[in-house]
Amino acid sequence: xxxxxxxxxxxSPTGDPHVGTAYxxxxxxxxxxxxxxxxxxxxxxxxxxxxxxxxxxxxxxALHWLGLDWDEGPDVGGPYGPYRQSERSEIYTIHxxxxxxxxxxxxxxxxxxxxxxxxxxxKAAKGRFGYDGHCRSIDSDEAARRRAAGxxxxxxxxxxxxxxxxxxxxxxxxxxxxxxxxxxxVLVKSDGxxxxxxxxxxxxxxxxxxxxxxxxxWISSLPKHVQLYQAFGWAPPVFCHLPLLRNADxxxxxxxxxxxxxxxxxxxxxxxxxxxxxxxxxxxxMPDGRExxxxxxxVEAFRLEAVSLGGPVFDLTKLTWLxxxxxxxxxPSELLRRLREELLGDRYLLEVLPLAHERIETLADFFSYTxxxxxxxxxxxxxxxxxMVIRERTPPQxxxxxxxxxxxxxxxxLDWSAExxxxxxxxxxxxxxxxxxxLFMPVRIAVTGRAATxxxxxTMAVLGKEICRWRLRSAAETLRTMKA
RNA sequence: GACCCCAUCGUCUAGUUAGGUCUAGGACACCAGCCUUUCACGCUGGCGACGCGGGUUCAAAUCCCGCUGGGGUCACCA
Length: 484
What we know:
Layout: E1 6-9, H1 19-34, E2 38-41, H2 53-66, H3 89-101, E3 105-108, H4 112-124, H5 140-148, E4 154-157, E5 164-169, E6 173-178, E7 186-188, H6 196-206, E8 211-215, H7 222-232, E9 238-242, H8 262-267, H9 272-281, H10 295-301, H11 316-329, H12 332-341, H13 346-357, H14 365-370, H15 382-388, H16 395-408, H17 418-431, H18 436-448, H19 456-463, H20 465-480
Parallel strand pairs: 1-2, 8-9
Antiparallel strand pairs: 3-4, 4-7, 5-6
Helix pairs in contact: 1-10, 6-7, 9-11, 15-18, 16-20, 17-19, 18-20
The structure holds one RNA strand.
């Protein structure tokens, strides 16, 4: 008998809501909806260092904005909860112990140092990388004693050591790996938290997920997952690995080369339906060749087996064209509603207003004075270009400083506020032997396109991290190719 | 480096499962023109691809092999 289709999106709350998450969520959503099944949201927050509730909130928000509503999740509950992995610790512990008891997993006492050394040796020998199974031969009674004595350890999966491991992917068919190629994956970290591999398999099983649709980067750990299902004696779900979104140079999409935060697109004026429509086009083509369609149309026509395997380049130009098409379809009142929803909403306007208030002399001044708050990209005219170059530096050097500023300072800010931005900028100046005065004007021009603006930190705070990131990137790109 | 995945215009793709109907279709971008007080939209046309080499076959973009190229993975991150 046919089991109800259940799919899930399982993001890790460790940063901005990623466009790749939206992409994978869309396909999972579409399959569940067209089959009348359920779409589940599960938060994979087993990385205690990096997971934040702010990130989790942004993910909920981004998915809601896109209209990819879930039937079960941490916020709405459901019969298979809890849906946050940090709240499921006992479940993982119990299952991990089952595996140890049955001999499918074993404690490993290797130190960080030994592991680093091992890796260095393997690298020098240009051999295969991976754990060498050192602790696998420890007698189970002795291992139990050492654990009881409180010795630091992890739990590793005992993978088969020889033979072929054949796994199945919906789009690719059978994929086989030589067993020697796959090492004994850590299942439980020394802090007692499960790794992705363990938690993922247990949860997908317990939550009765029927189709695991995820990004292609997971395909090489599929043998470990399949082995886990076998060790538990569970029937594995259907696995389907989606191609990775790419930068223009075809490398895996990254924030260094592309805007990747859903927040960016939202603030830059993209419509959720256009985002979804474009993402759907990344790997799927309508039978009639139509390129503009709604989520409902997509759900109806979608065929998972028909997804193409080439890694699609995420092309802002085409996204923008599609967005324009969607905008033209809106009625005037609907367009007004959209404008008010995002850029012209009271919430945002009330943030911008105070910054302009004492600087304008007519109401009309407001618009010319604040226009950079309402656009996606800004242009740099000749005067701006000139002034954007840091004193005593060449344009390419300035570009490098901008990139450094992003990567080593701004990216790390979790609470994007005027205070934290100021602190970051000032300490960046100190660390890089720059006077605040020298850096701030170029940054101001980079993020606004002009020299006369409200106070820089407030401005950046209101613009939002994602818009600032991307404008700083564009500015760096402009400078890089500029002659001194 | 090892392993795995992938391979049609610059980009997204149709066609590949059942080889002929493919002198390879559509879309974005680009170019030209039309429409138009401008711009945009819209319309018309143009440019532009089966990575290479071997097979199999009467016939290959489609099947097989090799090569090349691109990507991913090789964490106590997901």
